[in-house]
Design goal:
It holds the Pfam family Bestrophin-like. By secondary structure, the chain is mostly helical. The chain has 8 helices and no strands.
Length: 266
């Protein structure tokens, strides 16, 4: 959707301009109808009350969806970081040379996971990062197969393969979550509904010859709520981002020497 391609400040200006134009239109029409205000005040009051209630409901619904997706993305980052950390620990129990090769690939894999977290969802840069990560997945899985083939009765390769599979699933879930936005229909309904409600509110107040300050404050509040809703749904851009801190912490621990030596014997 067009709105998601804009920077936060440009988005805020666009939404503010839309709301301001709606308010201005309502004020102009309301002043022109002022001569018939006695007949129009009651129906306009009922209409603006209904639209304000509708706008509040839609804004709350959209904000709730955005907050839910934001929290899910934060949870996905923690889940993947834990999966990578567990896989790295279990890789240390494998026999050489698979052990060293797997540890090196896992370090690269952690870096690619951070790269995915830093790129805009759906962009070419993120798709490249996902493709590179999938290449590492295939290499890691091939090494895991070698470890299991060399010691089919050994518990270590079996546990490693289990954690490796969970790590792959965790990244797939996180990538899907990054692209899971509030439906465009809901976003359009929020913007159009808010603009219409503000226009009717301004029109109603203008029939009394006042209300500019009140409707301007309402427009500012609505604009702020819309900007926050959009920002929550853009995990790698804007003022509200999904932090990659858990992945950074795991990558930092992987830069240190392994905690245990390579196993000796069969």
């Amino acid at each position: 959707m067009l709105f998601f391609g804009l920077s936060t400040w440009v988005l805020a200006l666009v939404l503010a301009a839309v709301m301001a134009a709606s308010v201005a239109l309502g004020l102009v029409v309301g002043r022109r109808l002022a001569t018939r205000s006695v007949d129009l005040r009651e129906p306009l009051g009922v209409l603006q009350g209904a639209l304000i209630g509708f706008m509040g409901l839609i804004l709350a619904f959209g904000l709730s969806l955005a907050v839910g997706r934001y929290e899910n993305r934060r949870t996905d980052v923690v889940a993947e970081a834990n999966a990578i950390g567990t896989t790295y620990l279990r890789a240390q129990t494998l026999a050489e040379p698979v052990r060293s090769q797997s540890l090196d690939l896992l370090r690269d894999y952690a870096d690619e996971s951070i790269r995915i977290a830093d790129e805009r969802p759906g962009s070419d840069a993120q798709r490249d990062a996902v493709d590179d990560s999938q290449e590492l997945q295939r290499a890691l899985w091939g090494l895991a197969g070698q470890a299991l083939d060399a010691a089919p009765a050994n518990v270590a390769p079996q546990l490693y393969i289990e954690s490796l599979n969970e790590m792959f699933d965790a990244q797939a879930g996180r990538v899907a979550g990054l692209g899971n936005r509030v439906p465009s229909a809901v976003i359009l309904l929020e913007v159009v509904g808010a603009a219409l409600a503000l226009a009717v509110l301004a029109l109603h107040l203008a029939t009394f010859g006042r209300g500019i300050a009140t409707v301007s404050a309402a427009a500012a509040l609505v604009t702020l709520l819309l900007v926050v809703t959009f920002d929550l749904d853009r995990p790698t851009r804007g003022l509200i981002r999904v932090p990659s801190t858990p992945l950074d912490a795991v990558a930092a621990t992987m830069a240190e020497p392994p905690a245990v030596e390579a196993p000796q014997g069969p």
